[in-house]
Amino acid sequence: MIRDSKIHKGTLPDANAYIRYCAYALQNRFKQTIDDYHRFPSIELPVSTNPFHIQEALNDFQFPEVTYHKNGARSSKPVEEFLRNTETIALLILKDNKLLFEQYCFGYERSSLFRLYSITKSVMSILVGIAVDKGLIESVNDSISKYLPGLRVSGIEELTIESLLLMHSGIYFTGIKMPFHEASKIYFTNNCRRLIKKIRISDPVDSYFHYNDYHLLLLTLIIENVTGKSLIDFLWENLLEPLGWEFPLLLTIDSTKNKFPKMESGVVCRAIDLAKLGLMLLNDGKVNNKNIVSTQWIKASTAPNTMVIEKEYYRHYKEKPWGRMCFYKGLGYYKYLWWGNPIDAMTYDFYAMGILGQFLYVSPRKNTVIIRLGKRWGIHGWLPQILKEIADKL
Question: For residue range 325-338, what is the model confidence (pLDDT) as tens digits?
Answer without folding.
Answer: 899 888 899 999 99
